[in-house]
Amino acid sequence: MTMTINMADGSKTQALAVGDAIHLLQTFRGADLTQTIDQIEQSLRGVSAQNYAAVLTTSGAKAEVLGAAGLIKQLAAQIDVVVHTLGILLCLPHILRTGEVIEYVSLGAGNTGRDFDMETNLRIAEFKFIRWQGGSETIRQNSLFKDFYEMAEHETPKGKYLYVLGTEHGEKFFKGGRALSSVLRTATLRNKFSKKYGDQYQTVRDYYLPRKGLVVIQDVSPFVPELVAVAAEAAEAQEE
Q1: Domain residues for 38?
Q2: Same domain, 51 and 84
Q3: Which phi-psi region, left, alpha or beta, contains residue 134 (left: φ > 0; alpha: ψ -120 to 50)?
Q4: Residue 128 contacts residue 191 (beta carbons within 8 Å)
Q5: Which of 27, 166, 172, 181 is the 20 to 30 A CA-CA neighbour of 101?
Q6: CA angle 180, 186, 192 (to 5 degrees)
Q7: What is the H or E stretch that residue 2 is in?
């Protein structure tokens, strides 16, 4: 992927490749972005309009770098879709059974009009390639509950599988006492749940325990070790 950079004077540079964009950003950030920004802030003290241009040049703040940041940001917005797509494709050889036939797979963001991420002649399935951090996981929990709920309520003789990266945090959430009122955040899901169950269930645990046998929650970490390794490295970096 490339991007043409518009300059301040209205001219344009040649298309910027992803590799070049990454190099520009790495050069600008230096060894530590926080330290780089601090140095720039210090250099701007006492600067007037007359000598600002010189300081700007010294800081390395160029239109090309901003364009590079915009390009990488655009790509980053699609990363979750890429992870979802590749994760499913790499898991399938380990999941599909002899004689099992795929009826459809939804690889993009959302299920694009389909009920689930995958349906075969034997099962329906959802994939969640999120790595639990162990802290406040409100958004992840909401999403996980929605997938479990949709599968548990779906009428089918087929098996129901919810594939995740690690089951510890998910199981703790399902067996915990978080109020359903705080989990059912979207109006569509909240209305659907309320219409069927009213105030019969107060917590996630109340709803989950009678239905835990309806959906198999399976860890697919062994099938996508690359995702696990990246998450582990990120966690170590945060601790340092």
Answers
A1: 2-76
A2: no
A3: left
A4: no
A5: 166
A6: 70
A7: strand 2-3
